[in-house]
Design brief:
The complex is a heterodimer. Chain A is α+β, with helices and mostly antiparallel strands. Chain A folds into two domains: 3-142, Roll (Ubiquitin Conjugating Enzyme); 156-234, no CATH class. Chain A has seven helices and six strands; from the N terminus they run E-E-H-H-E-E-E-E-H-H-H-H-H. In chain A, the strands form two sheets. In chain A, strands 3-4-5-6 form a four-stranded antiparallel sheet. A two-stranded antiparallel ribbon of chain A has the order 1-2. In chain A, strand 4 (46-57) and strand 5 (63-72) form a beta hairpin. Chain B is α+β, with helices and mostly antiparallel strands. Chain B has three domains: 1-24 and 261-479, Nucleotide cyclase, GGDEF domain (Alpha-Beta Plaits), CATH 3.30.70; 32-259, Nucleotide cyclase, GGDEF domain (Alpha-Beta Plaits); 480-513, no CATH class. In chain B, strands 1, 2, 3, 4, 5, 6, 7, 8 and 9 form a nine-stranded mixed sheet that branches. In chain B, strands 10, 11, 12, 13, 14, 15, 16, 17 and 18 form a nine-stranded mixed sheet that branches. In chain B, strands 20-19-21 form a three-stranded antiparallel sheet, with no helix packed on it. In chain B, strand 12 (333-338) and strand 13 (341-346) form a beta hairpin. In chain B, helix 3 runs antiparallel to helix 4, helix 3 (65-93) packs across helix 9 (241-253) and helix 10 (294-301) packs antiparallel against helix 11 (305-329). The longest helix of chain B is centred in the N-terminal third of the chain and has 29 residues, at 65-93. Classes of the chains: A alpha+beta, B alpha+beta. The interface between A and B is large, with 37 and 41 residues. Strand 4 (46-57) of chain A pairs parallel with strand 20 of chain B.
Chain lengths: 242, 513
Amino acid sequence: MGSVVRGQRLRPAWYLLAPSRLETEREALRSLPFFTFAHEYFRNQLWIVIGTLRFTWERSRKEENLQVRIEYPDRFPDELPAVFDDKCVFVTGVDDGHLFWNHALCLTCPARGEFSLGSDCLIEEVLGASLVWLNKRLIFERNGRKDWPGPAEKHGVLANIDLQIERAGLTANLRVVNWLNRLCDDARTGKRILPLDPYEPCLCGSAKKLKFCHGEHLQPIVKLLADKSLWPRFTLRDNNAL
Amino acid sequence: MAWNYEESKERLSKQWQSLQKSGINIAKLTREMDLNNLSPSDARLVHGVHVYTAIMNFSELLANPLMRRDDFKRLLRYCHCLQVELRRMVQDIFEGDKIQVQGPKFHGLIFKPYDDDQWLAWKSVLAAVAFHLMLREAVPQVFPTYPAIVPTSGLDLGDSVVANVGIRGDRELISIGRPANYAAKVLDGADTITIGERLWSALESDQQDLFNEDEGVYRLDCGDLAHPEKIIRDAGFSFSIDRCVDKLQESLDSIPLDTITVEEAKVAIDLGLLGPKHAKWCSGASIFVDIDGYTALIDSLKDDLEALGKAVQVLHLFRYELRQVTEVDFSAVTIQHQGDRLQALLHVPAGEEGRICRKAVDLCISYNSSVEEVLNVHHNILGPLHVAIGCDYGKSLVSRLGVRGDLDSACFGDAVLTAETIQLQMKGNEIGITEQLHKAISDGAIRDSFSLDEERKMYIGNATWAAIEQAEQAKAYTAKAIPSYSKAGSIVFGISAQAEEARPLKVTRPWGV
């Protein structure tokens, strides 16, 4: 504990850099009405907290509990803490089960920037989302794991791709959607993904060159799909498959 | 007060521990004993014939202007006299026992001799003939102005478990097993005695010839018997219509009309205060809850006394929970346990039809929730069991009929008959309610959990609180409209959660998780 090796440089962990923030986090965790703080420990550069999320169903007054493990990343609070189903209550590998292969809850696509990174209330937001996740996962289990309650959203790399398409305003563009489907199929079957030529016409069908049209959003998609090292980290399955 | 998962789980856990501590002893009934003295940890496996005699035209009696006069006082007295006489006949003439009076239905058990099925079978047929004779010929002599009764009987032979369920001072003798159930199910046909295959096979051939086969059961039209009274007497039984007339007259004289008080129930009815001379009427919801598949379970275990003991304990547990839900969670009245079935009445707050109807539907859902979410999950001892529920709303008369020290609760009314009919059509994990009840439901999620069965003219659902809530929340998440409220010390999730000092969770897009 204390410092980690990054290349040749030694850098103290975030909680050593900002001990007061560690105290703030402890306070925040203890004050949450829906979370019971059990214990904490340090492992490598990570501060790890074990606790229980709980809520009561309104009609039946049934109490639900889920023991979670919160792993604070080394770049906290500029990076989101990861929340894990600590007792492995829920099975992984289920399509739309919103649970990564390592039992981390799939809470958000970080690139969406939905959480207030850097703020004091970050953990409340993350655990609040975890609580909603628990509620949804229980409903999902109850309906035979058919439909995830709420709008279906993709996970990991696919969520990032969706976000890029959404930001480019191309969700309804059939040419782009078909190109994307083909590209994903190629990635799934292990074909080589070639980078896009910025001086080719844009895929959206406008007469402009890609560089001057949607290149900003479409080129990162190709990069994401080409980088296979991202897949295990960002998909629900651990078999390196998409 | 309403149903609460955590409380239900806790009380069932305590009750199951207590049942296991006291254990259960099941033995074959081989010598005379008063079955009413059975303790909750004792049960008897009784080989005998179950006799159900019912008033087939009871709905006509309920609609009869004379019976309706003076708040049904005459009907109450009529039923009381009939049930007392039927009880006397089965005990004094045919050496059997009364198991229960279930409103217009009398349930008796004839079990002597212990080792001669042929004689036992014939004796029970003669007992049913005697009941019909009394109802058709003796009753009109004592009650000449009252509407005539059309009796019907159902009989079956076999082994059943007889147990005494309930808390001290409020125990009820119940009988569980195929013959007890089957005899009630085959009841059909005016002045007809219907018997099951096993009972028919035990009869001698000339006795069998009296019956006509009809789709697996055998029927005897009592009108076809020449000199039935003589047949009974020739068989050695001291039965006579004149004696029945005397006894009925005696019962009638002991209960003059002006000594009967019938009042409107404005607070929850205390059955202990009611008797043949004191009844209450109320507008309320009648509910029947039947444990589906329990009879089949008992039959499959009858050669294994240890497993049978477990099954009886499971029944005790179900009975306990259904009663707790009725009385503690909803302040309703448990009228009767009829074998593996419960009859309940919800009539408070008096005079508020809409609220009672809504509460009754909540009660039905709570029964189902207790069974599906607690009993089947935490006490799945002999496999999952489900309940079939029927419910209707209407005016009912509540009393207790019988002799001193052995009174049976009774609840009469059109709603009772309708609720029972609905329940009989339901399968396990099904709740059947009438249109009137469905219309009264104000909660959209509950209303949507029932669908109309046009053929049977009723609404059917299989709702539990968790299922309703989950469907409701899933819908809200899809509509991106779920509010999540937190309050100090706990988090309550719900669409309508309006806890004081509630505040939304700090989640940017709760539906987007």
